[in-house]
Design goal:
The protein is of the alpha+beta class and 214 residues long. The chain has a domain of 127 residues. It is built from three helices and eleven strands; from the N terminus they run αββββββββαβββα. A seven-stranded antiparallel beta sheet has the order 2-1-9-10-11-6-3, with helices on one face. A two-stranded antiparallel ribbon has the order 4-5. Strand 7 and strand 8 form a beta hairpin. It is elongated, with a radius of gyration of 43 Å. It starts with a helix and ends with a helix.
């Protein structure tokens, strides 16, 4: 083993969250890491002269890690020798592997964002979307897992006042004037014609002829 390999110790992957017992869950080793960044491009034609970036949308970052937490981790010393790390389960408490199993499940079930520290990138507002714990005889007193994570994106909403618009709060009666109902309008029957003076005189003369003059 070369001295360069012994001097090199990769940055351990850390899960950082207030929901963790110690605030940090550090892996003894990350076997594989996958950092994914992608973008979606519109399938519609883009007008000449338009802002190209308005038609390309960045997707949430994704990160996958395959890690191990052991009850007896191995630590590499800078002197070039390899020594066995202290077993942290000497106090009779919960072993590191069982603790890691519980902490990772708590992060998944809490549905709250947390941070990830890796050797390539620091991720904020991450959530676990898939968590797998394979178990086989060759793992020993350790836990091996694969976690798939996705970064959350946030937006701010802005209220814009519209001229002429009146907002009505829920439960408050609308005091606006009611709209007139369109439909048939009732009509007033025409008044009976009023007799003219000439018609009155004609009627009187006929009555006189019938009954005779006094």
């Amino acid at each position: 083993m070369s001295l360069a390999l012994l001097l090199y110790r990769p940055t351990p992957v850390q899960f950082q969250s207030d929901r963790l017992t110690a605030g940090i869950l550090e892996l003894d080793a990350s076997l594989n890491e996958n950092h994914n960044a992608s973008a979606s491009v519109t399938g519609h034609p883009i007008e000449l002269g338009a802002e190209i970036s308005d038609h390309i949308f960045l997707n949430p970052r994704r990160y996958t890690v395959e890690g191990i937490v052991s009850d007896s981790p191995v630590s590499f010393l800078a002197i070039g020798a390899v020594s066995i790390g202290a077993i942290t389960d000497l106090t009779g408490g919960v072993s590191p592997s069982i603790n890691a199993f519980q902490e990772l499940n708590n992060l998944l079930e809490s549905r709250e964002p947390f941070d990830i520290v890796s050797g390539l990138h620091f991720y904020e507002d991450m959530v676990i979307t898939d968590l797998t714990f394979p178990k086989s005889f060759d793992i020993g007193r350790a836990i091996r897992f694969t976690a798939q994570l996705q970064q959350l994106t946030f937006v701010e909403s802005t209220e814009i006042a519209v001229a002429g618009a009146t907002a009505v709060s829920p439960g408050v009666p609308d005091t606006a004037a009611p709209t007139a109902e369109m439909g048939a309008t009732p009509t007033t029957p025409p008044a009976a014609p009023t007799p003219t003076p000439s018609e009155d005189a004609s009627y009187l003369s006929r009555m006189t002829e019938y009954f005779g003059s006094p």
